[in-house]
Amino acid sequence: MKTFLKFALTLALVFSFTHGYAAESLNGAGATFPYPVYSAWAFDYNKVTGIRLNYQSIGSGGGIRQITERTVDFGASDAPLRPEQLNKDRLLQFPAVVGGVVPVVNLPGVKDGQLKLDSDAVCKIYLGEIRKWDDPRIKALNPQIKLPNSDITVVHRSDGSGTTAIFTNYLSGICPAWKSKVGAGTSVNWPAGIGGKGNEGVSNYTKRTAASIGYVEFAYAQQNKLVYVLLKNPAGNFVEPSFKTFEDAAATANFNPKEDFNLWLVNAPGKNSWPIAGATFILLAKEKTASNKKVTVFFDWAFKNGDRKAQELIYVPLPAALKDKVRGYWKTNGL
Amino acid sequence: MARTAKKNPVDMSFSFITAVASFSVIVFIIGILYVLISESSLAIGKFGVIKFVTSTDWDPVKESFGALTNIYGTVVTTIFSLIISIPVAIGIAIFVTEISPNFLKGPIGVAIELLAAIPSIIYGMWGLFTLSPIMSNHVEPFLKKIFGSVPLIGILFQGTPMGIDILTASVILSIMIIPFTASISRDSFDLTPAVVKESAYAIGATKWEVVKNVVIPYSKLGVFGGVVLSLGRAIGETMAVAFVLGNNHRITTSLLDAAATITVTLANEFAEADKDIYLSALFYLALVLFVMSFITLAMAKFFLIRAERKYSR
């Protein structure tokens, strides 16, 4: 009897603990891209408030499904959902942090930021129409560089990813031929090139293959010391990928709270905007007001205190004006 | 038999537990099949069966899906991995059982079994960072130079050697499945009665003749079983090839081109499949793989049973 009592007591204790946890924890799932910054914020937030935030990086598609089925408190997606779909599934959506995609090259003698490309050149290279590095269309942009007469090896992602979605949206936005032939999505039917799995796959192949071009997340380009290119933005300036140019893109793009911030952050109109950026989004279930409140309190805290942490991890915090727009969006939705 | 009649409670519960364990397998299989079919019903309805398995389209943006490129990639990588692995594995088994001095048998046996214990993701990363550069810089240019201009075989070695291709994937797969073929072949070779071998030696047969005419005929069923086991593994292997195959949805004739297998497509695209029809098409692919594995196993069983019959006569 005594042992039974002990056993029951232990069980009760264990359950009360787990119950206590359940009240003080938030569960999210989705995009892999923002995982490092969300978990860093969650770690700091837990130290301050004692609230635990579990984020499972299962991919944007999985995040959308899980919040649609209401199995998590919030979902995360690299791709913005359209207002119609949000209405249909009764979801709310707001941006949390910004990242950028950077074309990187491996050309003998070409260093960081030396090669200049415009949208037409990038598009034609990825369409397989520009096949050689000394093509007149590239030469015209780079009169000062001696370009080799070698075949361009195009590297793209082999797996479905938000990075590809951002990159193909950029191409679709500036290049009608791309839009009609290939289109935009997490994985597309690539007309040219070889596929590497993940950012690590693409950066590995680009580093290893002479005369290649690939595209990776900004953080990967920095950490792996890949040679980035300068891109011509819609305002007509050649810009280099940096916190400043990403922030400029986020600040000048027209994020509209009335349309649930549904916007691909590509080809932003700003003078110094990097043309291939992307916000990553948080999805909430409209009717779960109580848990939504907790999620927005967390992100409000992160907006106030998390900028430095985000930059350390090479993410771009939202510009102040956009943060206020997001807070206004919470308010109009009763959070 | 007499004991079961007594209905000893321990015996009864024991047989009950074993029966439950066995039937649970059937329940799982039916459950998996059910989930695959119900999840892929959307794609089955849209593309049908014949159209899906004969279409080479795989375009998530235009929502047009077909499995042929994936089936092709699966079959080709499996066949080439078997072509590479079977001779090596049987060579290992012959050396260990018939030729090697006793003190070497232990270490080689352990090494083979260790090879089987390495997780496939390790093979994948090793393939990406180590094997793929070696293949693209040394092995593939060499093969291309030798075979590239030979008629017929030359078709297999066209294109720029990138190291992300059917050949690299097949090499990794073959390294992964060698332990299965090798250790089962070794065990079957060991089962050859010493008397038979010694008789052969006694009438003046050389080692080669003993292996060729006594050991291999005696144990060919076991070897075949080992090959089937590795075949199953090669068809379903995912992570080891996901990094080095490029997930290219095209049918290519060259071994130096990227391709896609069913498992590689699933591993690459499942997490970010954002449309219902896309996800459903991926489940449909999984169903196709399920059926393919089933057919392979059934065919293997059929040959095994026939061979066994012939053998026992």
UniProtKB/TrEMBL annotation, chain A:
Q: Where's the PBP domain?
A: 22-303
Q: Where is the signal peptide?
A: 1-22
Q: How does it assemble?
A: The complex is composed of two ATP-binding proteins (PstB), two transmembrane proteins (PstC and PstA) and a solute-binding protein (PstS).
UniProt name for this protein: Phosphate-binding protein
GO biological-process terms attached to the record: phosphate ion transmembrane transport
GO molecular function terms listed in the Swiss-Prot or TrEMBL record: phosphate ion binding
Q: Which terms are listed as keywords in the entry? A: Phosphate transport, Signal, Transport
Q: Which family does it belong to?
A: Belongs to the PstS family.
Function per UniProt:
Part of the ABC transporter complex PstSACB involved in phosphate import.
Gene3D superfamilies per UniProt: Periplasmic binding protein-like II
One Gene Ontology cellular component: ATP-binding cassette (ABC) transporter complex
InterPro entries to which the protein is assigned, alphabetical: ABC_phos-bd_PstS, PBP_domain, Phosphate-bind_PstS
Q: Which NCBIfam families does its entry note?
A: 3a0107s03 (TIGR00975), PRK10918.1 (NF008171)
Organism source for this protein? Answer: Candidatus Sulfobium mesophilum
TrEMBL record, chain B:
Q: Does the keyword Transport apply?
A: yes
Principal cellular location given in the protein's record:
membrane
Gene Ontology molecular function terms on file = phosphate transmembrane transporter activity
Q: Name one Pfam family in it.
A: BPD_transp_1
Q: How does it sit in the membrane?
A: Multi-pass membrane protein
Membrane-spanning parts: 12-37, 71-96, 108-129, 149-178, 221-245, 281-304
One of the GO BP terms on file: phosphate ion transport
Q: Which UniProt keywords apply?
A: Cell membrane, Membrane, Phosphate transport, Transmembrane, Transmembrane helix, Transport
Location in the cell: Cell membrane
Read off the InterPro entries from this record: MetI-like, MetI-like_sf, Phosphate_PstC, Phosphate_Transport_Permease
Which Gene3D superfamilies does this chain map to? MetI-like (1.10.3720.10)
Domain spans labelled ABC transmembrane type-1 = 71-300
One GO CC term, this protein: plasma membrane
Q: Say yes or no: keyword Iron present.
A: no
Where does this protein have coiled-coil stretches? Answer: none
Q: What does this protein do?
A: Part of the binding-protein-dependent transport system for phosphate; probably responsible for the translocation of the substrate across the membrane.
Tell me the protein family, please.
Belongs to the binding-protein-dependent transport system permease family. CysTW subfamily.
* PANTHER family for this protein: PHOSPHATE TRANSPORT SYSTEM PERMEASE PROTEIN PST, PHOSPHATE TRANSPORT SYSTEM PERMEASE PROTEIN PSTC
- What's the name of the protein? Phosphate transport system permease protein
* Organism of origin: Candidatus Sulfobium mesophilum
